[in-house]
Design a protein that fits this description.
Length: about 425
């Protein structure tokens, strides 16, 4: 029996569709974010990263690095095992207290990743509620979809951000049946925001619980960085908040926050929590340092929003097809998997710019895109250089420019788009 044949056949399909995943070998340069060293068969060279989810560069903040190094030096590297066997390292206790305070909840529970916190959190909560009906937004992340699937409970999919459709499904379910509404506050591929107020109104009217994924919003929105729910003044109305430590906080790990009874029940029943090694103490201390800093500092958030707004303005002025939204996500529509990969390759090979292509199944076929994520450290020179490179790639690949733009892509030949100094390692 030639078992390898099954695997090679599976991969050949991905290659034909230009969906085969190639990982760039990158070394981020501490203190010089967003620069990184790219290693390839052609050697080493410096590139500019434009698609990192380290949205604020906190992964290289001196407070965060300092907390990790000091704690690892004092307590060692690993956690020693699961929390049930090895005990809970004290930095993890402090981290969960910090997260509960951030979201104004009774308690928080930390998982090894944001994916795991959704997958096991949603599944466990729904399993603990007899006859629970899950109502899930159509564009929810794969981790949430897997959580719904693993719960074994009935599910209904409501049209993306369509509260009228959600209400229709809630009415059909009846007020007496237990219900869990699962949604993201900020959707990372299109950059649009959920109508959280209206979702909570419906939850209260029809007796449902709410579970909000704030992964792409924590640290970035709200007076203390608690996310969209804090910004919109609805945090106390959301029953369960899920977030990550791996994006705006620059570390790794995921969590949920909510009432004592719910968090304790998940802690005691969730296989994805019980049977896996805890986060290392150094990582916990680093995440706590990032959260504490962003609770009191608005500088990073304000600069981040300003950079995103300027980037959108410059790309739109160059007639590049920016998909509109009011958040920090800057998607450029390509609409073809092969050309999307080719655009990414040209940017890296010829312009020293790294932007990973986003293809199916992350987005629907025909909606392939380059997802750009500016940070506070992408200055005007880098933004102008990116625009010039993108116009060059769009012209060479015959990609469609935005015909509604009032300014021609020839704008990039203006002196302010002049080629910067050569980038060298």
């Amino acid at each position: 029996m030639d078992y390898d044949r099954y695997f090679t056949t599976a991969m050949s399909g991905l290659r034909q569709e230009r969906r085969y995943r190639v990982f760039a070998d990158l070394e981020r340069i501490a203190g010089r974010f967003p620069y990184a060293v790219h290693r390839s068969s052609h050697g080493r060279r410096e590139v500019v990263v434009w698609c990192s989810n380290d949205y604020l560069g906190m992964g290289q903040h001196p407070k965060v690095i300092g907390a990790l190094v000091e704690t690892a030096t004092r307590l060692g590297v690993g956690a020693g095992g699961t929390r049930n066997i090895a005990g809970t390292n004290h930095p993890l206790v402090e981290l969960e207290r910090e997260l509960a305070d951030l979201h104004r909840k009774d308690a928080a529970l930390v998982f090894t990743s944001g994916y795991v916190s959704n997958q096991t959190g949603i599944a466990t909560i729904a399993k603990l509620i007899p006859d629970c009906l899950i109502l899930s937004d159509a564009l929810n992340h794969n981790s949430m979809i897997e959580g719904v699937r693993h719960s074994g409970r009935d599910k209904l999919i409501w049209h993306h951000n369509d509260v009228e459709h959600l209400e229709h499904l809630l009415k059909q379910a009846g007020r007496e049946r237990p219900k869990l509404i699962v949604f993201e506050t900020l959707y990372s591929m299109d950059g649009d925001v959920a109508p959280v107020h209206r979702i909570c109104d419906l939850a209260e009217r029809y007796g449902a619980m709410t579970y909000a994924d704030e992964v792409h919003a924590v640290g970035l929105y709200g007076a203390r960085g608690a996310g969209v729910a804090e910004r919109d003044g609805v945090m106390d109305r959301v029953d369960v908040v899920e977030g990550t430590l791996a994006k705006a906080f620059g570390c790794v790990g995921g969590y949920i926050a909510g009432r004592h009874a719910l968090i304790d029940a998940v802690r005691s029943h969730a296989p994805g929590f019980i049977f896996t090694t805890a986060l290392p103490p150094g990582i916990c201390a680093a995440a706590t340092a990032a959260i504490r800093h962003l609770k009191t500092s608005d500088v990073e958030r304000e600069r981040h929003q300003e950079r995103a707004a300027r980037l959108k303005s410059v790309l739109s002025a160059a007639a590049l097809p920016v998909m509109p939204n009011d958040t920090h996500i800057v998607p450029l529509l390509v609409g073809n998997a092969e050309k999307c990969k080719a655009a990414s390759d040209l940017l890296l090979d010829e312009h020293a710019i790294y932007i990973q292509p986003i293809n199916y199944p992350t987005v629907p076929r025909g909606m392939e895109r380059l997802r750009i994520t500016p940070t506070p450290f992408h200055d005007d020179r880098l933004i102008d250089r990116l625009a010039k490179a993108l116009v060059d790639v769009w012209e060479r690949l015959g990609l469609a420019f935005d015909q509604t733009s009032v300014i021609s892509p020839s704008i990039v030949h203006h002196p302010r788009f002049a080629e910067p100094e050569a980038i060298r390692v």
